[in-house]
Amino acid sequence: MKEVKAKGIEGWGLSLSMLFGTSPNFTITCGKCGGYFNRRFKLIELKNRNPKTVCPYCDTINKVPISY
After folding, report:
1. Which structural domain, as residue segments, surrounds residue 10?
2. How many domains does one find in the chain?
3. What is the pTM of this model?
4. Distance between terminal CA atoms of the chain?
5. Up-side HSE of residue 23: CA atoms within 13 Å toward CB?
6. Cα 6 to Cα 14: distance, rounded to the nearest angstrom
7. Is 9 exposed, middle or buried (0-12, 13-18, 19+ CB in 10 A)?
8. Is residue 38 one of the residues assigned to a domain?
């Protein structure tokens, strides 16, 4: 599968969900098709930097430029 960098990401910096080991809900713009989708990451994924997620529209892996 091809990997691309996500075009955009929006979301809060902090959330109560972090107490339970997940990130705030982020809205991600796919780097290939431009589709918008929402995703929460596990905090361990954020600590490893640049987590990856699959676009539900075009099945492309998106690298998300965020860290914890």
Report:
1. 3-63
2. 1
3. 0.83
4. 26
5. 22
6. 21
7. middle
8. yes
